[in-house]
Design the sequence.
């Protein structure tokens, strides 16, 4: 019987000492569990993804030194095979590193394998730093009577042969291992867990290979890794799943004879629940971890949010409270002459429900002082869009005064619908270090607010906030629908135009049908074109926006790299 | 005798109709010149680089349609071979496109070639969208008695075999062509022209192959392509060079028998001047074109700049005037209580010299209104860094009021030294659509200012501005050197840390020696570490900064992709 530990850890990019310490802790626990093999995620030494740090000499030296330290660390927990991920120096033409897996025991490297399939799509850019490993680089290692073979993340995603000419799964199958170990750094979005299960179940069943998949967990700028490490048996059934959104070091038993994962009593593990989290609960947990890790890694313990009395800031506040605790979140309400009465009273109720401090800072006088300065300087009156934007910028400036004075992380409150069409003020409400709901369409913002109330079993976010018609309140009686189509319509168009083929199937069918139906009329076609133009025209705003936590298949940021000064095809 | 036209055009990303029109014009001129062959840059159909537009179905359809239109266009100028660049659909595993070259004549595609070497470093990311072309895809075409072979940009950069396993130059040499035609989209930075000459001279001499290199010209967001198309003879001598920073359609004569480029009298062309522009003149012309094209393509004819009386804004204004004309540039001076007397009077003299409008807008009252609001809301006094930042944000807000009201493009004035170490206020002086001098170190800012005065043969930028000690003027008697080392020191450290091995050799030696010397003392080592930490810690500001025009080998933006929430190796 092979005891094997899935060490789903939360490493920090570049923190090589810290990451080795995490691995050492997990290896000690593995030893207590009687393990012979402890498996860490892809690039566990550096965390995924260090980007151009890999090009810098001081970092390269730290990596080499880190590998030496790591070997020493394995001697502190002797007798156990450590399966680690690290950038590995190589010679010859091409990039300076492989994205490598090493099996180390008692200070000795027993096996090295270099990732063959390097993803270069969506948020991935591995060809920038790595050379693909040689084909037929697959080797097995005999551990406690089991022949174990290894792969790294993307290696496992081409068993249908659609994306690369090379198929590492077939290569593995040829060496007839008893067990496959896959190390991963797979960022999470809706549908991703199910997609992983589907891809690996299918490949494992086809090749009759049991597999352990160990994933990174944690937040890194806009990407969140959910963990959710899992094991698949040779029949393609998922028989183990680690916890999601948290470090989880769990030990399994594997019987090489029957090639099955077993429980303590020697019974085969039963398939796990196929359903995962609901979409809204998934969003909530992903965003909470994303904020926690971003704040922690940037040295913030507190956050501040401008509270408009609207749904976006309310949801952002509720999520910030869930992540950082009520005592660490401050809301600032900044009413102007156009703010409805409800905007302050709704903010007050919201903050009372959340148990957070609310500061009121009316901006009328400051706006007036700008208006008074404008005419003498520029010879005309401040009005229209410029006046609307000014109010947002005064608020953004006050929030930064607070952040600069008291050291709070400012969170921006824009949602994906607004950010898509540029319904936001650059250097105003876009200000902030991180956007929590910038990858949620407005219709999803409402749904998540209701979900959070449902979880709390109380009106945490007042229904008056959820039910009022969305308004920027930057002009008299302004409503979002004055300049935008209703969000139920806009969001379907946006899903189709921005995420298209990357949408999960249930959303894709719906959005495609919706847009196809729209395009049967002249008005509908004009509307779709207008939205496409708005998306393209506002690329410059998104380029200057803070990172938004990614929760969907295609988020703004590195997953969508568009030129600014270009002619869009609409 | 083969007549061949180098059509160095300035296409717009995604503007397929417009780009075909540009090609048609150039082909007509080629015909008048008696050419048999007109050569356009890499990706001339779409312009380089459309990025993720290539992933979008409407754009993919426009490309296919564009190729059909292009074939029709060649019939309008019959008898001429058009060498064009375009994304070409492909089937099978992998990316959906090749980065292709097509030779089209009278509506018929005579040859297709797919780029084999796809760069994935610095600003390049071609593996994201393209599959490499098959090896041994090289074919020749007989045109007017000459056997002509073809390559695309990066294909020509691996003749030493350092970067890729494949060497398209050797492949070409095997098919024994009389002439090689290379189509390119090679962005420009200091030393790049000389590097191109060196690489292609060496390869052409080694393989005894004459070559025509045709480059794109024009600005695309932060990248500027200088054109500077050239011809190399079989001895490795550069015997023709097109104009730089401007469209240039020029026709050469090539004698297939002697394999030489010739003039109208049948004499071999003599080698061109090896020296190019001075570094400062290069910067000036690159920035001017970069701004012109960015403004034009984004629909701006006018620009506005905050004029502090300091060197950065003065240089930005002078460059904006050179690009857009004095009548299209507005300066706004916004003195605070900390502004020196000189700041307004220097601004006034500068604007008088440049012939541009200067608007004065004192910010004291607005700053006071923020201060008065701060204490009652937040229970403490606005002071220190928060007060310093506030002034920059009030100015940034006023500039955006002006931009929103009158439709001017706001230019940000930060230089590379400041942007590196975060000596700037986010949502304040970083505001703007484009940064003109954000890739120039502060010491270079001074040099370029002097150069511009030298060109004008007058004190266009007042010497009082050039000679005053740099100050942000956000606190009493503040000087940059209060918190930063002198720029002569800082800039060498920054060059070493940020650009390192990418520096041109003359700068690399100097920066390395300077830093090595510093590191001989404890204080020196501590200083280098401190600067490295400042660079790393301010990544979040750069992530939200507007594009800066790239002039150096490694600029902030896509050329340096760093995580924010990470531990730097310092």
Sequence:
């Amino acid at each position: 019987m092979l005891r094997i530990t899935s060490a789903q850890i939360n490493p920090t990019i570049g923190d090589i000492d810290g990451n080795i310490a995490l691995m050492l802790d997990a290896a000690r626990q593995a030893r207590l569990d009687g393990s012979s093999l402890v498996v860490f995620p892809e690039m566990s030494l550096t965390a995924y993804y260090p980007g151009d740090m890999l090009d810098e000499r001081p970092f390269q030296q730290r990596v080499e030194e880190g590998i030496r330290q790591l070997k020493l660390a394995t001697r502190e927990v002797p007798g156990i095979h450590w399966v680690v991920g690290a950038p590995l120096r190589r010679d010859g033409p091409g990039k300076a590193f492989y994205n490598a897996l090493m099996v180390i025991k008692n200070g000795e490297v027993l096996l090295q394998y270099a990732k063959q399939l390097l993803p270069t799509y969506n948020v991935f850019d591995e060809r920038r730093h790595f050379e693909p490993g040689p084909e037929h680089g697959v080797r097995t290692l005999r551990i406690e009577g089991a022949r174990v073979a290894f792969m790294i993340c993307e290696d496992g995603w081409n068993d249908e042969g659609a994306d690369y000419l090379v198929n590492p799964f077939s290569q593995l199958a040829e060496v007839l291992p008893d067990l496959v170990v896959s190390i991963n750094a797979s960022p999470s979005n809706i549908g991703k867990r199910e997609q992983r299960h589907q891809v690996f179940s299918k490949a494992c069943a086809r090749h009759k290979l049991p597999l352990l998949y160990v994933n990174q967990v944690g937040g890194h700028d806009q990407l969140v890794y959910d963990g959710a490490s899992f094991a698949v048996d040779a029949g393609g059934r998922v028989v183990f799943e680690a916890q999601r959104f948290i470090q989880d070091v769990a030990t399994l038993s594997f019987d090489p004879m029957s090639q099955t994962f077993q429980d303590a009593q020697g019974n085969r593990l039963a398939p796990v629940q196929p359903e995962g989290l609901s979409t809204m609960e998934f969003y909530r947990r992903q965003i909470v971890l994303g904020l926690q890790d971003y704040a922690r890694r940037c040295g913030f313990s507190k956050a501040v949010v401008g509270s408009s009395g609207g749904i976006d800031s309310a949801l952002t506040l509720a999520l910030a409270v869930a992540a950082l605790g009520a005592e660490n979140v401050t809301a600032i309400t900044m009413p102007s002459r156009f703010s409805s009465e409800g905007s302050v009273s709704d903010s007050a109720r919201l903050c009372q429900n959340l148990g957070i401090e609310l500061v009121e800072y009316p901006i009328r006088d400051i706006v007036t002082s700008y208006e008074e300065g404008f005419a003498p300087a520029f010879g005309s009156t401040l009005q229209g869009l410029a006046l609307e934007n000014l109010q947002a910028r005064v608020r953004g400036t006050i929030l930064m005064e607070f952040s600069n004075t008291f050291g709070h992380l400012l969170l921006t409150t824009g949602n994906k619908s607004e950010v898509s069409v540029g319904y936001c003020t650059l250097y105003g409400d876009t200000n902030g270090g991180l956007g929590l709901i910038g990858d949620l369409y407005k219709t999803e913002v409402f749904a998540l607010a209701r979900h959070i109330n449902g979880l709390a079993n109380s009106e945490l976010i007042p229904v008056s906030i959820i039910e009022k018609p969305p308004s920027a309140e930057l002009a008299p009686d302004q409503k979002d629908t004055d300049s935008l189509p209703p969000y139920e319509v806009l969001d379907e168009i946006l899903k189709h135009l921005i995420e298209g083929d990357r949408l999960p199937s249930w959303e894709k069918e719906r959005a495609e049908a919706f847009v196809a139906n729209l395009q049967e009329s002249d008005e509908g076609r004009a509307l779709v074109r207008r939205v496409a133009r708005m998306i393209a025209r506002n690329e410059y705003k998104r380029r200057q926006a803070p990172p938004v936590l990614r929760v969907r298949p295609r988020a703004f940021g590195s997953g969508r790299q568009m030129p600014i000064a270009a002619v869009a095809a609409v």
In short: Chain A touches chain B through 95 residues (CB under 8 Å). The two ends of chain A are 61 Å apart (CA to CA).
